[in-house]
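One-letter codes give the sequence; each number marks local geometry. A record appears below:


***
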Amino acid sequence: MIQGQECEARSNPWYHIMSLTKEAALIFLEQIKEANDIKKLDRKDLPVLAQEIREFLIQKISETGGHLASNLGVVELTMALHLSLDLPKDKLIWDVGHQSYTHKILTGRKDGFDSLRKYGGMSGFPKRAESSCDAFDTGHSSTSVSAGLGYVCARDIAGEDYTVVSVIGDGALTGGMAYEALNNAAQLKTNFIIILNDNNMSISENVGGISTYLGNIRTAESYKNFKSDLENRLNKIPVYGDPLVRGIRRTKQSIKQLVVPGMFFEEMGLTYLGPVDGYNMAQMQRVLEDAKRVKGAVIVHVVTKKGKGYEPAERMPARFHGAEPFDTETGLPKNRKKKAAYTDVFSTVMCKMGAREPRLVAVTAAMPDGTGLKRFRNMYRDRFFDVGIAEAHAVTFAAGLAAGGMKPVVAVYSSFLQRAYDQIIHDVCIQNLPVVFAIDRAGLVGSDGETHQGIFDLSYLTEIPNMCVMAPKNKWELADMLKYAIAYDGPIALRYSRGEAYDGLKEFRDPIVYGKSEILYDECSLALVAIGSMVKTAIEVRALLKTLGYGCTIVNARFAKPVDEDMLAYLAKDHSLIVTMEENVRSGGFGEKVLEYYNETQADLRVMQITLPDDYIEHGSVDVLKKEACIDAESIFKKIVAEYLP
């Protein structure tokens, strides 16, 4: 339940957050117009503000979608930070950043929630261009300590005086970069505050040794009881009691070392304060003031709960990590999914192949639900590995599995695979090991924006020697390609889109042959050569051309690497325009490789490349983003008509 100063009416752990009337709901929230306005409120009103913020978040995210559970868990923590800091002078850096909604509210961006994650609207992550109170753009995990340390060193070199706070979740501590930064931060002789937001979750439940370690600290009743009893006794001593308590908190070799084994952070050279109740703002403010006085890096361990205050999110935090619009009364999605997603198809085939191939193993980086491996885990628990938020480790771990005779499938989002680029080259491809990369969320993913768009994988994967890269046109081809990939003897990547799987073109199902494409229609001197999700778009372009009396050849490329040069040679015989279509940036993409082939062979034809721009693409719905990038069917049709048709 919400602890500290909250009134008795809210002490029930399952209180319904929507119980406030609309007339009363935003009394204090409406007084927050800009940064530091929270400091103008009376302390007794802060618990009501916290409830108003929760009500506001639940209502708005139920309409727009967004990250709910993580934000509900850090309302009081964020308020305590804003009470203790002077923004934007002080720097507050959020790891990943999907838990920054309360921060956005407290810095005067409440009205932006109507356009949250919509094209041209407010981002769901911190953005320096959006507010001077956003100190660092984030979207991937385990980065905040490194960024904060950079700020600290820049501050000291410039001779400036401001506080730097990095907030990092316990799930993010499974990422190796966090430990590299902590190791570096241990050398500091000036203040740097690191808030460890410990909610025992990343997206799914945390795994590994650090989770166990923090769990032991959380549940060390002997320490908590001893500490509480000692502080209560000392506080009763007139005049000297309070200074003694503060002195104990500041002392590095404090009483917690007597009763909590390990003291991992202290032994690294970091001062450790905590664990602190993440719903007791007064306690958090006191500890933050203590932390500011430390001459070095200090860890403040704050215990929170994902989904706090909203029963459905508390029970199912993974479902409410990145929520679609939902009914506030039940927590159920408003728009029930009708068709299977590509992730669902992948999940089904993995389970079937697990029965046929005893060497098949699955690896995920803290995303068993998102990547569709939850069913495989339940069926083949000894062949499932969740390594935590550690993509680089996941890839090298998979390389070791392959070297040991297994058939590993690494299921990962396209954007997150970028974090393991070195390992793909050095540990998988140089050794030519049979690792399958099942790349979900390839192409545009929509509302999460720049840090999550999967628009670079065709470029960075196809340049690696020994790597084979495929993309399916529909759900049946995904199933066939996954079976092919599992049987393939070498590194192979299979990329597929987020969302509903295309179920058209069922009649076209030629066997998968290495490096060979597939002709769907062979009609005239215009050829659309599309890969992956863009095959569906090519079909739509063909339908538009038919309205003008024109046909076109459509080729399902299937392989981005190797490119089917035999097919390209065939097209060159009687086609004057080749239109390549891909949901990837232009540089290094599929279209460039087609163009390179025709340039080298001096073919007498033109190549039109339909790609995403060589740029970062902001948040918004996928349909809107495709129109803006001119890779939707209508835009491609108009371009062909303008440049090719008489």
Remarks:
- Confidence is low (pLDDT under 50) at residues 1-24, 251-262.
- DSSP finds 26 helices and 17 strands in the chain.
- The first helix runs from residue 22 to 25.
